[in-house]
Structures are given as C-alpha cells and as structure tokens.
Amino acid sequence: MQPAKTVTGNASLPLAVRTINRLGPMLEALGLQPRIDADHILAKAQRLHGAPTKLDPLSLEGLKTRALAYENDAGLSLFGRIIVQRDLIRCVANQLAFERAYVERPEILREKIESPLFIVGLPRSGTTLMQRLMCCHAGARFIPFWEAHEPVPRTIDPSPDDTRRRIKAGRNAVWQLNSVVPELRAVHPITSEQDPEECLYLFLYTQLFPDCFDFARLPTYWHWFEGLADRTAPHRQLSRQLKLLQWVRSGQHWVLKSPVHTARLPELLEVFPDARIIHMERDPVRSVASLCSLTALMWNVLGKQVDQEEVGTYVLGVAERGRAVAEQALANLPPERLARVAYSEFVQDPVGIASSLYTRFGYRHDPALEVTMQSFMEANPRNRHNTHVYNLSDFGLDEETVRQRLSPPLRVKVGTKRAHQVAV
C-alpha cells in the first residue's frame, strides 16, 4: 500500500531564504519577479567575460532551452529565480572563457587525453568515496572544487594571483552552498575548495547536461537533450574542456566521476576509447531511496514545493535507464579496462580494494598510495557529517517495485587478492 502523495515546501530552508521567498508572490503579482531569460543571461555573461566570444551553436540552443525550462517547468521560488539566474550567468561566462582560450591558443586542442579513469554507477553507490581514494595517487589529475567552480584562468597563462583568486572564490562558494543546504554534508560532503569534485560542472557550462543530477524539474530540457542528433556532443565537449585543464596543469592520468556518465557510457567510450571504468554497484533499493532523498533536497532549494511522489517516479526512471545502458555498454570491456565493485564489499575494505585497482589498470606505481589512502580514511570517517536518512515510502515507492524494475545481474566483486563473480 503506497502512501498518499506528499508535497513538501521549503520550511526547512534557512530563515534568510524563507524571508526572500515570502516576497515572491507580491513581486509575481506586480510582474517584477526575475525572469530566466537566455538573451539577458548571455549578454551579462559576455560583459563579465570581457571578450566578444561566441558560444558553440549547440550550447547556445541548450542555454535557450534550459532557460525556458527553468522559467516554465521548474516552479521556481523567488530565491530559486535569483540563484538560477546568477548561476546560469556564471556557467555561460565559464564556457565563453573556454571558447576564448581555444581561439587564443589552438595548440590546446592538440592535447591528448590518455587512459582516463571514470568512476560511474547509479548515484549514491559509493562513487564519491571511490573517487576521493583514487585521487590519492600521486599522479592523479582531478578537478578540485575551486577549479570546477571557475575552470579557466582570466589570462590563459595563469598567474599565482589569479589562481589564489579562483581558490578564494571556490572557498566562498563552498561556504554559501553549505549555508543554504546544510543537509548536503550528509549526502555529498564538500568541506573544502580543494576536495575532488565531479566533472558534471563541465557539462553544465556547455549547457549539455543529462538528466540525473539537476537542481530542478526540467522536463522540456530533458526531452530536448534526449533528442540530440549527435549523442556524443556532450562528451566531445568534455574532452575539449579537459584538454585545456590539462594544458594548464598536467598529471599522469585523469580521475573523473559523475552520475551523468552512467546512461551515456556508449558515448563516453566512443569519445575516450582507452578509458578505464570503475562501475560501482549497490543494492538498487538503497541507491534509489538515497537518490530520491537527494533529488527532493535539491529541488526543494530552488522550488516553491516538491511533489515527492513525482520525485520517486522520476528517479526510478533515471535509474532504470542508466542500469540498462550501462550493462549493455560494459558487456564487452576487457577486465584490464573494467572493474565492477560491490558497495557492500567496498565499505568493508575501501583502501585495499581501491589500491588494487591501480595495479589492475596498469597505471604507474605510487609507493605511498596505500598510506595516503589510509590517512584520508582516518581523516574522513564514515558519517562524519551525520547520517543521510531516507525511505522509499516517502516517495510512493516500495522495495518490490524497485527490485522488479532494477533486478541485478551477476556482478564482479573486486577484492585485494582476486576478482570473481558474485550476485549483489
């Protein structure tokens, strides 16, 4: 028996946010609420960028479609409108900076992205912990939060002052995020601007962002994205962005992670044909329940109210599509390029499993790796930032439905000694 549909408001948000939102109905009645307008956003970003650079035509189309979806689909609160407008301006300005750099330094696009390591899987399946452990390798090139927030130096040859400025901006962004959404610490902790962050930010800058981790309900945009004639376009743009970041600061190999990759693994493997893949596996009941909770939390920050039953339907659909695509894409990858890791086993021996993967994938040996990983685990114990509590029933779902839609095939458990087939 499923519960009645539950619709929640933003009563849990900080007082300052709730105070802003109380002004929303009055401004809407007067026709004075901020509009999410693509032309205004682009013009403002171009002024901030300081150069007559143009967006890629597909990114421009994505911006216009995304802005309309925010305006018409998302049910934004006044605070949500302010934040979305500000963040879209920042995203477009960042992408304009990428485009300017490609023109000023065409040699950037001759960089080679070799043997990148991608950590994928359904959201809430241990991908964050795996990423942060794999980033302990001395040769790992990852994207710290401050670089994800503002990836391109103001001048393409970065100065120490500019790097310090971007780090400070990232630190301020971490503080703002944790102030507005303190519950996020228990779900996806970002405690420092130096923390390894997901490459999903780079997709946001190109306006080519698969549905999975959006901060709002944007069905018009999601429909447009799924209909793209060139499904590799988002990952080809990602490759271009990584080339610039690598040109500015190199490493031995990239360590990248985002839930948006799971349902786009065929395209990822086409664009990065020598990629190594760590596919995290978790009981789908736990993954779906946790992702429902995270999605409702994010939608609540920007929206007037959240229909939790709609969240459940949306998340289960995302998980089902991601699982099906991932299984097909990974079916023929050789073991030296693919590791399936069961979450239940990983949390029992995270250092042993993570360190063994570097040997398996043939990356350069780091003699201090296990010590560095162990130090990270000691400094970051599980549930350090409280426990993330969630229940399927809050979202109109039950275990039987989830298991029927996401019945797991055989998995490969990766241990410190050997890998073998297990069911999870």
Short key terms for the protein model shown above:
alpha/beta, about 425 residues, globular, Rossmann fold, two-stranded antiparallel ribbon, 5-stranded parallel sheet, disordered C terminus
Could you describe the 3D structure shown?
- Helix 6 (127-134) packs across helix 16 (350-361) and helix 13 (284-302) packs across helix 14 (308-330).
- The model is unreliable at 410-424 (pLDDT under 50).
- The protein has a five-stranded parallel beta sheet with strand order 3-4-2-5-7, with helices on both faces. The protein has a two-stranded antiparallel sheet with strand order 1-6.
- The protein has helices at residues 15-22, 24-29, 38-49, 57-72, 78-104, 127-134, 145-149, 160-180, 200-206, 219-226, 233-248, 265-271, 284-302, 308-330, 343-346, 350-361, 369-379, 399-405; strands at 7-8, 117-121, 140-141, 253-257, 276-281, 306-307, 338-342, 410-414, 419-423.
- The protein starts with 6 loop residues before the first strand and ends with a strand.
- It is of the alpha/beta class.
- It has 18 helices and nine strands.
Please work out how many helical segments DSSP would assign.
Answer: 18
Instruction: Enumerate the strands of the largest sheet in spatial order, edge to edge or round the barrel.
Output: 3-4-2-5-7
Computed CA radius of gyration, to the nearest angstrom: 21 Å
In the residues, how many domains can be counted? 1
Termini separation comes to: 26 Å
Going by CATH, the homologous superfamily would be: P-loop containing nucleotide triphosphate hydrolases
Shape field: globular
Q: List low-pLDDT spans.
A: 410-424
Structural class: alpha/beta
